């Protein structure tokens, strides 16, 4: 399902203009990461996608729905939104109720609800904890409950706000698997993140916001190589990209296999260079 | 001089059977910057609470062993002694805002008021710490009308301003953008250079490697590994226990299998080390 944003402006009450003319289009099935400094407008922008915020000027369309004319409740069938802080989102007494709440509200048949809940729990590693009160779980696991509660709604668009904050290695890996599975199902995944390594490894398109405007928008291996523009919005390229730049490469390796391929190419080049000096410029 | 001294500390939260900390012994020198890493549920926050005296004074439960901070055994320490020796920056900054103040400026001054600092001395100290943490322009804003990242800086400033001997931080950069993260690490590093002792829980291994003097890896309430960042952050046991490695370390570890990384060189934990090693590994005679 497409999302179209046209000349979107938004001011918070009190006058802070958080978005200053954003135009972009996200195609169905895309994996999009939004990056940018604290206060750059990332959360404000995505809150327009499910109608939590309404444009001060311009418009947002989700499929054929204009978010100004469709209720948040109705938009919830198209756009799932996982809050940054799970405590803003959870209210049921058990994990099972929490995860069933969304699909039930969307009016799915009980068997379908059950199937969606089971799937969401399996994806998030929560199977076996159905009867637990979400607030008896650690913050890490509460975050997984918040995630499951949105996945179970089976929406064509899923938004994650800072999914890896405070998460350890294993839960970040779990998050990456969830994104891969959503991709297989053709869902549109939009994620706000400060974790550039996670961004590099899991998203194909990156949008960098700064001062309420789009600074960069393109394939991940182009955007994440633009160190100077990213610096304007307090973002640094991922570790492997910074290392590649130090080594004098033009490539923007986003994953370890791609980085190692570039290493192998560099060695071969040198082997073929007939005793030439090392090829790096220092 | 040892300023934080934990001997055989075992702790159980009320109404739980499993220990959150199990036989933890830890000595921190004055001015040392110690980072604590570990998977979720390893006991990192519990360790923070213990050093800061929230355990046993606030959380109750069962504490065994001894906890000595700035020369005073934690059980015997008065509230005032604890407040003057240790500051704790909470994992969730929202939980730390007093709720009693209308502006960021007043919020940061709150701790000084309670310490009985003279009114004449307060503004300069507040302004200095706001500049240090990059929040001068937020002075007149409500502490509640801030983004997560801004709130996190306010939480840090409101503790730093009290100039505790020991600064305990529980994931203080979790909501910050990448440049903000590096800045906050830099600020904390400088505090340590000026003699403040730092215990900081953090997941961002690249910056732990670049800034901390020593790293403690916690797993299941126990210390799994301890040493310099270079030693701990390349310890294979960390992978077995799902701590993860930085991309620098992982890339070199993979590259070493085909001599893209020099076989006799220690795995890198920082960008500088990774650059040096790969330059050498990719050079062919």
Automatic annotation (TrEMBL), chain A:
Q: Which Gene3D superfamilies match?
A: P-loop containing nucleotide triphosphate hydrolases
Localisation per UniProt entry = Cell membrane
What InterPro entries does the record tag this protein with?
Answer: AAA+_ATPase, ABC_transporter-like_ATP-bd, ABC_transpr_CbiO/EcfA_su, ECF_ABC_transporter_ATP-bd, P-loop_NTPase
Q: Which PROSITE patterns match?
A: ABC_TRANSPORTER_2 (PS50893)
Q: Does the keyword Cell membrane apply?
A: yes
Give every ABC transporter domain span: 3-236
| Principal location listed in the UniProt entry | membrane
Instruction: Give the molecular function GO annotations.
Output: ATP binding; ATP hydrolysis activity; ATPase-coupled transmembrane transporter activity
Gene Ontology CC, one term: ATP-binding cassette (ABC) transporter complex
Supply the alphabetized keyword list.
ATP-binding, Cell membrane, Membrane, Nucleotide-binding, Translocase, Transport
Can you tell which superkingdom this protein's organism belongs to? Bacteria
Q: Which PANTHER family match?
A: ABC-TYPE COBALT TRANSPORT SYSTEM, ATPASE COMPONENT, HEAVY METAL TRANSPORTER
Family (UniProt):
Belongs to the ABC transporter superfamily.
* Stated name of the protein: ABC transporter ATP-binding protein
Species lineage, top-down?
Bacteria, Bacillati, Chloroflexota, Anaerolineae, Anaerolineales
């Amino acid at each position: 399902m497409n999302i179209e944003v046209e000349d979107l402006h938004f001011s918070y009450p009190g006058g802070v203009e958080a978005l200053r003319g954003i135009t972009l289009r996200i195609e169905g099935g895309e994996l999009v990461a939004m990056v940018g400094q604290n206060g750059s407008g990332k959360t404000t922008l995505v809150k327009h996608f499910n109608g939590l915020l309404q444009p001060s000027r311009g418009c947002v369309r989700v499929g054929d729905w204009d978010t100004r004319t469709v209720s948040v409740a109705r938009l919830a069938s198209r756009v799932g939104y996982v809050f940054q802080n799970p405590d803003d989102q959870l209210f049921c007494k058990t994990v099972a109720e929490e995860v069933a709440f969304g699909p039930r509200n969307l009016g799915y048949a009980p068997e379908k609800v059950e199937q969606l809940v089971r799937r969401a729990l399996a994806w998030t590693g929560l199977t076996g904890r159905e009867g637990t009160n979400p607030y008896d779980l650690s913050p890490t696991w509460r975050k997984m409950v918040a995630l499951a509660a949105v996945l179970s709604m089976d929406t064509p668009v899923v938004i994650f706000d800072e999914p890896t904050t405070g998460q350890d290695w294993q839960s970040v890996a779990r998050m990456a698997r969830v994104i891969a599975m959503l991709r297989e199902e053709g869902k549109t995944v939009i994620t706000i993140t400060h974790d550039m390594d996670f961004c590099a490894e899991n998203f194909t398109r990156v949008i960098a916001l700064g001062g309420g405007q789009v600074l960069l928008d393109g394939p991940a291996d182009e955007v994440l190589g633009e160190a100077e523009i990213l610096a304007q919005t307090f973002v640094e390229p991922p570790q492997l990209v910074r290392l590649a730049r130090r080594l004098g490469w033009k490539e923007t390796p986003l994953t370890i296999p791609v980085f190692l391929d570039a290493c192998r190419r560099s060695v071969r080049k040198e082997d073929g260079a007939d005793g030439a000096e090392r090829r790096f410029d220092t | 001089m040892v300023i934080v001294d934990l001997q055989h500390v075992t702790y159980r939260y009320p109404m739980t059977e499993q220990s959150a900390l199990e036989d933890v012994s830890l000595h921190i020198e004055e001015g040392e910057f110690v980072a604590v890493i570990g998977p979720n549920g390893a006991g990192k926050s519990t360790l923070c609470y213990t050093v800061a005296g929230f355990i046993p004074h606030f959380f109750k439960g069962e504490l065994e062993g001894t906890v000595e901070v700035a020369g005073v055994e934690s059980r015997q320490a008065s509230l005032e002694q604890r407040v003057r020796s240790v500051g704790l920056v909470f994992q969730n900054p929202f939980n730390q805002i007093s709720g009693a103040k209308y502006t960021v400026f007043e919020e940061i001054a709150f701790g000084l008021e309670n310490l009985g600092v003279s009114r004449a001395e307060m503004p300069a100290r507040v302004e200095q710490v706001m500049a240090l943490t990059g929040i001068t322009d937020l002075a007149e804003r409500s502490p509640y009308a801030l983004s997560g990242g801004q709130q996190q800086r306010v939480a840090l400033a409101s503790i730093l301003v009290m100039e505790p001997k020991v600064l305990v931080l529980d994931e203080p950069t979790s909501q910050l953008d990448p440049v903000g993260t590096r800045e906050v690490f830099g600020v904390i590093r400088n505090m340590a250079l000026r003699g403040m002792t730092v215990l900081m829980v953090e997941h961002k291994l690249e910056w732990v490697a670049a800034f901390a003097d020593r790293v403690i890896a916690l797993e299941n309430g126990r210390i799994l590994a301890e040493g310099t960042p270079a030693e701990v952050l390349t310890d294979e046991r960390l992978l077995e226990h799902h701590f993860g490695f930085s991309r620098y370390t992982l890339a070199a570890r993979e590259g070493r299998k085909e001599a893209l990384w020099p076989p006799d060189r220690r795995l890198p934990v920082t960008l500088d080390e990774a650059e040096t090693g790969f330059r050498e590994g990719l050079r062919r005679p």
